């Protein structure tokens, strides 16, 4: 949808990223690093996942091989070819000012579904409460009147908060770094591909959730890296008939163990739940980019078909124990009970199905009741906040699965 219905063409860039990740899985670390350097020079958003690449290649390639100079030369050559002409014309400062828009404000004109959407929403609620009720007097809170229309006018600029503290670019940088560190330590301790792809995903999540002026389309970096991780677990699962030896280790002589093995030899429901929730609400969060009536049935149909097809396919990859057995050895559920939603909790099901009434209001009811000009930002805010709840929850679920799987296998080794 983003490539063919919106104005940005990111498909070939994600193709390069996936190629680089596949090379890393196959142990072709030099080519993986070169491809990522090329990717980074195509679009700087991939700085989000650069820390994970740096730590993984340092641990798996530089520490295990003597050809460090070749990798360094290759990366320098890519950056020289890309940035050399700008440096020769003294345009690097101009380039940097355009690539890193620190003056554009914390939130994009349409809030991305991240921490700051929730933060801005809480601030708006508090503004209403303080302006309509005597709550501010009881809590000794002041209201910045300049913020009354600052975060809901749909314009690019500095974000002003009425009640909550102002967030600066330095704050977002520190928070992003803190959120990325655990995954980087995890992959540095044991540089397997499974830990690497998980670390890449967590770096993408950290940058999307806590970054400065994040665009809504950046959620694709999270969902696509999650997809690669899910595909890897399905491919290395004993149920798929494929072995996990090729490329699952990330360095010569390094002790390796795939995530599928850590999870008992198969994809788990927690993996699927986090992936499906983040992907679903992430894609719904992109719907406002396609705002014409003609595009509405297309974006809805594409998303629904994706959810059904991908969910049904992954459902067959989750082992189910035989009757009377505690072992998860059966490749999938029976035909009579094949429903991926049975793995979801009640609250998760309510949230997923809650997307329907929310979008009915956003796409149909709001304009019919208020028109196009009254409370114009409200549908966007509802979509962003609702999607942000799912993205944050999915990130927490994914993080729990990622770190607990590693701890479980480490505990087994020490016994």
Automatic annotation (TrEMBL):
It is an enzyme of class 2 (transferase). The chain crosses the membrane at residues 34-58, 70-89, 110-130, 171-188, 195-212, 272-290, 343-362, 374-398. Keywords: Endoplasmic reticulum, Glycosyltransferase, Membrane, Transferase, Transmembrane, Transmembrane helix. One of its GO terms (molecular function) is dolichyl pyrophosphate Glc1Man9GlcNAc2 alpha-1,3-glucosyltransferase activity. Its EC number is 2.4.1.-. The keyword Transmembrane applies. The keyword Ligase does not apply. It comes from the Eukaryota. It is found in: Endoplasmic reticulum membrane. GO terms for cellular component: endoplasmic reticulum membrane. It catalyses: an alpha-D-Glc-(1->3)-alpha-D-Man-(1->2)-alpha-D-Man-(1->2)-alpha-D-Man-(1->3)-[alpha-D-Man-(1->2)-alpha-D-Man-(1->3)-[alpha-D-Man-(1->2)-alpha-D-Man-(1->6)]-alpha-D-Man-(1->6)]-beta-D-Man-(1->4)-beta-D-GlcNAc-(1->4)-alpha-D-GlcNAc-diphospho-di-trans,poly-cis-dolichol + a di-trans,poly-cis-dolichyl beta-D-glucosyl phosphate = an alpha-D-Glc-(1->3)-alpha-D-Glc-(1->3)-alpha-D-Man-(1->2)-alpha-D-Man-(1->2)-alpha-D-Man-(1->3)-[alpha-D-Man-(1->2)-alpha-D-Man-(1->3)-[alpha-D-Man-(1->2)-alpha-D-Man-(1->6)]-alpha-D-Man-(1->6)]-beta-D-Man-(1->4)-beta-D-GlcNAc-(1->4)-alpha-D-GlcNAc-diphospho-di-trans,poly-cis-dolichol + a di-trans,poly-cis-dolichyl phosphate + H(+). It is a multi-pass membrane protein. Pathway: Protein modification; protein glycosylation. Its main location: endoplasmic reticulum. Belongs to the ALG6/ALG8 glucosyltransferase family. This is Alpha-1,3-glucosyltransferase.
């Amino acid at each position: 949808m983003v490539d063919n219905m919106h104005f940005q063409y990111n498909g070939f860039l994600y193709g390069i990223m996936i190629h680089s990740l596949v090379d890393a899985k196959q142990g072709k670390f030099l080519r993986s690093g070169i491809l990522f350097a090329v990717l980074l020079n195509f679009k700087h958003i991939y700085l989000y996942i650069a820390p994970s690449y740096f730590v993984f290649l340092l641990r798996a390639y530089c520490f295990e091989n003597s050809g460090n100079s070749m990798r360094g030369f290759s990366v320098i050559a890519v950056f020289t070819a890309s940035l050399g002409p700008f440096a020769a014309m003294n345009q690097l400062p101009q380039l940097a000012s355009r690539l890193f828009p620190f003056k554009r404000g914390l939130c994009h004109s349409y809030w991305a579904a991240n921490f700051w959407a929730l933060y801005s929403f809480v601030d708006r609620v508090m503004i209403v409460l303080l302006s309509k009720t005597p709550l501010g007097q009881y809590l000794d809170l002041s209201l910045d009147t300049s913020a009354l229309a600052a975060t809901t006018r749909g314009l690019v600029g500095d974000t002003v908060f009425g009640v909550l503290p102002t967030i600066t670019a330095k704050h977002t940088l520190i928070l992003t770094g803190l959120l990325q560190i655990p995954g980087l330590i995890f992959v540095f301790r044991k540089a397997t591909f499974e830990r690497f792809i998980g670390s890449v995903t967590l770096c993408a999540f950290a940058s999307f959730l806590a970054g400065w002026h994040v665009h809504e389309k950046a959620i694709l970096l999270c969902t696509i890296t999650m997809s690669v991780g899910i595909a890897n677990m399905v491919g290395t699962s004993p149920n798929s008939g494929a072995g996990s030896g090729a490329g699952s280790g990330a360095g010569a002589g390094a002790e390796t163990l795939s995530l599928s093995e850590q999870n008992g030899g198969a994809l788990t429901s927690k993996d699927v739940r986090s992936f499906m929730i983040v992907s679903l609400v992430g894609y719904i969060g992109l719907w406002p980019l396609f705002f014409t009536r003609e595009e509405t049935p297309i974006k809805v149909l594409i998303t629904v078909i994706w959810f059904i097809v991908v969910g049904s396919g992954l459902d067959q990859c989750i082992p189910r124990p035989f009757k009377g057995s505690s072992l998860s050895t059966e490749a999938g559920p029976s035909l009579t009970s094949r429903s991926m939603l049975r793995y979801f909790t009640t609250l998760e099901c309510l949230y997923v199905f809650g997307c329907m009434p929310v979008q009915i209001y956003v796409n149909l009811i709001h304009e019919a009741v208020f028109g196009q000009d009254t409370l114009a930002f409200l549908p966007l805010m509802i979509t962003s906040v609702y999607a942000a709840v799912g993205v944050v929850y999915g990130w927490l679920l994914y993080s729990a699965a990622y770190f607990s799987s590693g701890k479980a296998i480490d505990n087994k080794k020490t016994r």
